[in-house]
Design goal:
Helix content is 36%, strand content 24%. It is α/β, with parallel strands linked by helices. The protein folds into two domains: 130 residues, Nucleotidyltransferase, domain 5 (2-Layer Sandwich); 141 residues, Hexokinase, domain 1, CATH 3.40.367. The strands form three sheets. Strands 1, 2, 3, 4, 5, 6 and 9 form a seven-stranded mixed β-sheet that branches. A six-stranded mixed β-sheet has the order 10-15-14-11-12-13, with helices on both faces. A two-stranded antiparallel ribbon has the order 7-8. 44% of the residues are buried.
Length: 330
C-alpha cells in the first residue's frame, strides 16, 4: 500500500512455535523500517487467518493491503504446510482471506539471506578471517544453526543488485575430523543410516554431543537432560561437560561452514540465527576460525575469507520485507 513515496506492508515470520508480525515501511530509496514486532504463539490460533485478525485488532482494526511472509517450509506449491504447526496457507486465497492485493512468500531462510544482503555493516559481528566488510561482489554463504541447519547464499552483482538462492545444504553428509567426532558419528549412525550435517550442527544436536562426551569419560548423567538445559549449562560454565559439548559444537560449525563456503565458491560467510548470536562469545573464543580454515591446500584462501555473525534483531521480518521490495518495487 503506497502513501506518497513510501510503501507500507505487513511482514510476517512464521515458524513452528511462533509467528512474528510487524508493520514495515519501504522508502523510495529502498530503505526498510520495521515497527515493534508482535509475537504470537501458533498454538493459540486455529489458523494463520485468525492470527492475522488478532494482529489487526492489536493495530487498531486496519492493516496495509500488502503482506510478505517468511515461512518455515517449501513455498513453490499451491498449499503451504508447516512442519511443527497445523496451519496451512493457500496463496491463491490470500487476497480474499486477508484483503491483500500484493503479497510475497519466501522460505524462512531465504528471508534471512535477504536480510544478510541488505543489513548495514554495523549489524554484523566479526568472527573469523580478515576484519573487513563483506565483499561488494560475488557469492556470500549464509549458514544458520537452529532447530535444523539452514543454508542459503546470495550473489552480489557489480551494479549493487543481488540474487538469493535457498538450498538444502544442511542435509549434506557430515564429515568428522578427529576421534571424538568419529564417536559422535558412530552414536548417530545407530539411529540414522545416513548422518547429515544438521544432525551435529543444530540446536537439538547438542544432546548427542553431550551424551557422547559423557560416554567417552564413563560419566553418569541425567539421560533426560534436554537441549535447552545443556545449552544453558554450557554457556554459563555451570557444567564443564556441557561447556565441552558447546565447544565441540563450535568446532563442527566451523568445519561445516567452511565446507559449504568451498562448495558455493563463496568470498564471504554469514552465520545467522538466534543460536549463533546466543553463543557468540563462545564462538569467538573457540576453535571455530581454525576449523573453518582447515581445508588442506585451500587453508590460506579460507583464512582470508571474512566470516560474520548477523546481529539484526529480526532478520526474518526484515528479510521478508526486502524480498517484497525486490519483487514488487523494482
Amino acid at each position: 500500500m503506497r502513501e506518497g513515496s513510501t510503501t507500507k506492508i505487513v511482514t510476517v515470520d512464521i515458524g513452528g512455535t511462533h509467528a512474528r508480525f510487524a508493520l514495515a515501511q519501504i522508502g523510495a530509496d529502498g530503505e526498510i523500517a520495521l515497527d515493534e514486532p508482535e509475537t504470537l504463539n501458533t498454538s493459540d490460533h486455529a489458523s494463520f487467518q485468525t492470527a492475522w485478525e488478532d494482529f489487526r485488532k492489536r493495530k487498531g482494526g486496519s492493516l496495509p493491503s500488502a503482506v510478505t511472509m517468511a515461512v518455515a517450509g517449501p513455498v513453490k506449491q499451491d498449499l503451504i504446510r508447516f512442519t511443527n504447526n497445523p496451519w496451512i496457507i493457500r496463496p491463491a486465497l490470500i487476497e480474499e482471506k486477508l484483503g491483500c492485493g500484493q503479497f510475497t512468500i519466501v522460505n524462512d531462510f531465504a528471508a534471512v539471506a535477504h536480510a544478510a544482503a541488505r543489513a548495514p555493516a554495523e549489524q554484523f559481528l566479526h568472527l573469523a578471517g580478515p576484519d573487513t566488510d563483506l565483499p561488494e561482489t560475488g557469492t556470500i554463504t549464509v549458514v544458520g544453526p537452529g532447530t535444523g541447519l539452514g543454508v542459503a547464499h546470495f550473489y552480489r552483482d557489480e551494479d549493487g543488485s543481488y540474487r538469493v538462492q535457498a538450498t538444502e545444504g544442511g542435509h549434506g553428509d557430515y564429515a568428522p575430523l578427529d576421534s571424538i567426532e568419529d564417536a559422535i558419528l558412530a552414536r548417530l549412525r545407530k539411529r540414522h543410516n545416513r548422518v547429515s550435517d544438521e544432525r551435529v550442527v543444530s540446536g537439538p544436536a547438542i544432546v548427542d554431543i553431550y551424551q557422547t562426551l559423557a560416554a567417552l569419560e564413563h560419566r553418569s548423567i541425567d539421560p533426560d537432560l534436554d537441549d535447552r538445559a545443556i545449552w544453558t549449562r554450557g554457556t554459563t560454565n555451570k557444567d564443564s561437560l556441557a561447556a565441552a559439548a558447546v565447544d565441540r559444537f563450535c568446532l563442527a560449525l566451523g568445519s561445516v561452514a567452511g565446507d559449504i563456503a568451498l562448495v558455493q565458491g563463496a568470498s564471504g560467510v554469514v552465520i545467522a540465527g538466534g543460536l549463533g548470536y546466543r553463543i557468540r562469545e563462545t564462538l569467538l573464543a573457540s576453535g571455530f576460525a581454525d576449523r573453518f580454515a582447515a581445508k588442506g591446500r585451500f587453508a590460506g584462501m579460507m583464512a582470508n575469507m571474512p566470516v560474520k555473525l548477523i546481529v539484526h534483531p529480526q532478520p526474518g521480518l526484515f528479510g521478508a520485507a526486502a524480498a517484497f521490495a525486490r519483487e514488487h518495487l523494482k
